[in-house]
Records
---
Amino acid sequence: MPLNDHVNGEAVLAEYSAVRAEIEQLNGQIFSVLSGSLALDLSVLGWLFGGPGDPRARYFLPTVGILFLMAGNYILLNRNRGAHRLALFQKHFVEPRLPDICWGRVYFEYRTRYSETSKTWAKKRLESMAERLANSGSWVLVGASALNIVILAILGLAPYFASSPAVVDRAQLANFVVASALVASEVFLLPFMTDYKKVEEIMKGLAKEAGLTPPQS
């Protein structure tokens, strides 16, 4: 039976309130994950440089920091994906039954039009970071990981600038390669984890099956 035949305004409004509250909770978790991941990485780097002796003896620590940052990034992206699913549910299932509520429709339409104003890839990326908390937070964590790579490179190359001849440390080299591969994989996966077109297609299909007319996007 189409949902539009018997609309219980109070029930739909309660559902809207629950969805909005859950979205706000997920957004709050994004802030916590972002700050927590950075704090863990800074603690690891503090141990690297603040510990006794030569920091090169603790060469593995920046890679540990990268693992913390990656874990935080994937949790952050997971929370953002959940928030987007809820927002799309609101757009296609709640707002068609409550015409006076339009947050979901306006939010996604604004985002679409905003991205269309940018012509170059670099400008789109910068404006996306400015507009989207999770995307910008993800790139902040990737940037912190890249800084760890720079630290690894500096520590690893330092012996080659000394007066005495340096010997290639295979363990350090393997560590550097693994750390670089981790960051590269993260950069590669980010666009896929922030693409919500399939999610919206499924929501539209479910809305049609339920007898709702999805809003134009």
Note: DSSP finds seven helices and no strands in the chain.
---
Amino acid sequence: MYYVKAVVKGIAPVCFNRHAEGLQEKIEAGITGGVHTKASAEAEAAERIYSNGNGVYLPSEWFKSAMLQGAQMANLKQGRRGFFSYLKGGGFFVDREIATGHAGQEFMRERWGRIPPGPKGKLVWLRNPGLNAGWEVTFRLLVVDDGIPDQSVKAALDTAGLMVGVGNGRPDFGRFIVTSWERTATEPS
């Protein structure tokens, strides 16, 4: 078992599309429809950024999913088998919420789209909050099997950053590069 402390830097903006607060209650009450004003639509869109009492964060699930796709895209192997299964079962993020150091959104991505997607969907104006390129996060990863090479894990993350990205609108948004990679026997701070 070993830990990895990694730092990644965004080379493209990252967009968010978290369910707005109170959406579950609205769905259960059956009041999701209706006409929105521009102000109410913008306020709802601003709530889609992941934030807690410490500011904006990125969910660790984004990076885990991206790393798994990166392992497949890079055709990584563990012996004669694919590396995907080893990474899926053997790598865990220590923190579920990865702090960005930002207090709030830096821009609002706006575009036309269809809900549901496809030719029969209703044409709507879509809005997603985001952070500009240059965002940076530090996270800790626990690898439970010493037989899983940390360089293969790093290769999966490298490929994920350049080819997959994280967040909404990927791979055009959310791309990143690994700027620091440190393997340790004990949990890094």
Note: The chain has a mean pLDDT of 90.
---
Amino acid sequence: MHGIALNYVPGHRRVPETFGWQPGAWGGLFIVFAVVVLLPYGDNPPAEFPWFIFGSAAVPGLFLTGYELWRRTNRTVLVRDGGHILVFRKGRLDLTLAPDSISRIKADFHTTLMIGACLGLCTLLLMAVGATCAFKDKAESIDCLFILFAGLVCGVSLVSAAWTRFRCCHLRVPVKGSKWTEESVLITSSRVNELFTE
């Protein structure tokens, strides 16, 4: 069984890892900020162009969006096979585990509440400031749109955090060749019983 390709497992038996949108949302914000910095200078930035600011936004933006794409194309897939759970990584069987070797964890509610409150407050403030700015003729429209976009990203981050906290199950799955390292795998709560019940 070792090394078997995921393609041979029927689709209805696969329980794929799922994700929120944190890296993609924040990566998009950084990229948009880099574009906002570049726009006033046109196609030929002068010598005094703020390359440091542009690079400080573009590099993490590209890294985070690239990571978002990478993790979605390399997601871990779990498959129940009799009394075992098969762990597929990068499309091939990596481990065969007993169900009790995979632990379920619960995110701390207090931490979740604090993060949610901060994101909710940022969403409201940025959206309010951006909307107010957009109605003032003296304000640059691109700045207003960026502020609104930042508020939207905070809102997406809040929804993503809430979804992963309340609609998903967090698993700790052993990693091949390591006694101490575990991979955090998120699956939708509706599919937990497919893995952990007979």
Note: The chain has a mean pLDDT of 89.
